[in-house]
Amino acid sequence: MSVSSKMIVAASVLSLVQLNCGQPATTTNANSNTNNNTSTDTDSERFRLTVNWAGEGFGTSFFGAAVWVFIGDDTILRADGDYREGIDTRRYIKTANDPTTSWNVDVDSGKSVTLVAFEDQGAILNLARGAVAPAPSETTHIEFLEWGGDINATPEAGVATVLMDADKDVTVTFVLMPTLQIDVEGSGFFLNGFQAPVWLNDPELGGVSPVVDCVGDECETQCLGSSTFSGPALFYSMKGGTILELTSMDCLVDQFDWSMWTKAGCAGRNCTFQFGNDSDATAIWVAK
Known about the structure:
This protein is mainly beta. The chain folds into two domains: 6-122 and 135-176, no CATH class; 179-287, no CATH class. The chain contains no helices and 19 strands. A seven-stranded antiparallel β-sheet has the order 1-2-5-4-7-11-10, with no helix packed on it. Strands 8-15-13-19-17 form a five-stranded mixed β-sheet, with no helix packed on it. β1 and β2 form a beta hairpin.
C-alpha cells in the first residue's frame, strides 16, 4: 500500500515526527496503538521496528537530528547510502521540537535494517557584528551520541544494523553540541583554524572542517570595530572534540598592543580550545 510522501506521526510524548518519503510498508500512528510495539496477528511474517528519540537539555527547537532508514538484505555504510526520497526501501525521519518521540514501521521477517544518524554542522556567530548568542536553554545545535536497544552491530560511527527476526526497539540519542564564547577587551581580530572530527552527515559534507572565519588578506576586513571594542566577540557551537585554534591579530595598531589570553596554557597570541573540555575565554588588548 502506498502512503503520501509526507505524514505526521504522533509522538509518544505529545511531539511530532516528520516522515518525508514514499512508503510502501505500513506505518502506524502512535495514538492509535499506544505503547504497542508488537506485530499484527494478520501479518505474522512481518515484525515492527520502533525508533525512539532521546535527548536532554534542548531548547524550544533544534536542528540537525535525523535518521535515514534503509530496509533490505545488506548493510549500508554512510558513504554508500543513496539519500534520495521517494524510494520504496528508504525512510527519512527527523524529530520536531521535542526529541522524546518515536516512529515505527513493519518490516518483512529476516530483512536487515540499517539506521544512519545525521547530526548538525554547528555554528559560528560573529557577535561583534550584530549576531546574538543564544541563551543556554535556547542552544539548538545537536550531535549524535549513541545507539541503544536491539542493535545487532555498529559498523561505523552513527550507523547501526538491526536484523528483523522479531519486533525490535531501538533508541537514538542526541545531545547538545558544546559551545565556546570569545570575549574581547580592547580591539582586534582573529585568524581561525579547526581540526574537526568526522561530521555524521551527508557524505558530501561529513568530515569537512567548519568554515574558517578569515584567511590571509581577508582577515584585514575582520576588525571587530573601527574603534575600541570590548565585549562578546565570537560564539561557536561545534561537535564535541573539535579543536579550535585562534590567533589574535592587531586591528587598531596605533591604539592597542596585544596583551594576553585569559585561558591557561595559551602561548602568546595563539590559543587552542577543544570543544567539550575548554570553557569561554577572553582576549585582552591594552591601550598604548
